[in-house]
Amino acid sequence: MSAWHSGDRLPVRPRIGYLVSVTRHLLGLSALISGLVLAGCNAISGIGSLTFDGVGASGGGGAPPGDGGGGPGGGGGEAGGGGEAGGASGGGEAGGAGGGGGAGGAGGGGACDGEPCPVPTGVDVVEQTYTELRGSPGTATPAMDRCPESQVLLGFRGSLGPLGESLIHAKIQAQCGHLELTGGGPYTITTMPGDVTPFRGSEGTEPWEMVCPENEVVVGFSGWSGRYLDLLFIACAPLLVTGPPGDLRVELGPVTWPDGVGGDGGGEFPDTFCGADQVANLVQTVVEGGAIGAFGLGCTTPSLTY
């Protein structure tokens, strides 16, 4: 027998045969060990095959309740069924997915503590106040001509009479009107002509009429005066329903000034208005020497009825 040295080369075929033989022995040993382990598990459990119950994911709960206090969230879905364990070499099937949770109840709405808000049915007027008299009232007690019921002033008519080279207001009458609530939210307040007040003063020579724009009411006046009422302007405004459903209120819109009526005598007096969010429903007049010596308004507060 000759010795093998590191520099010597083995024949090719004998080396390959040697490797194949070693590999076969290792595979056989691995199979033997796997069989023993599986048999031992079966013997301990007392069953012929192993089954594993998988647990599916639970379904999510419902959406959170809405702002108005919603219903409770939906319940979670049922767990999915478990998958069967595979054989010695195959993997087990995955468990079924859990069912989806039910949707949460819708939030309760309402700006009136969860209850239906009251619905307005009309417009009424409350309280009574008075503006200053403009002109020369003297010591006379003014005539107070109020529109009937819940009517308010929509304008005036009358006639002018000569005074020297100018004109003055000889007589005057107020045009009243009804307030009507329309719509179902948003709401609108409209006007409709109603009654008239009595004429105050004496017959003039030049008739005139001055009314607010459509769906506006009288809220103030301005003009010129001396001994008599020379020139008259009226201030008008629409009525607006504002606020949330549970707290509706009536407010004045932008003020407009129709063209004035009268002569160019006397001196200018200050703009004179009803109180905040008030409208005119009465005319004050003082008659002096058969003509209008002083003029003013009476005012009230419009409010919604239910």
Automatic annotation (TrEMBL):
Region (Disordered) residue ranges read 61-109
Query: What domain of life?
Result: Bacteria
Q: Please give the name of this protein.
A: Glycine-rich protein
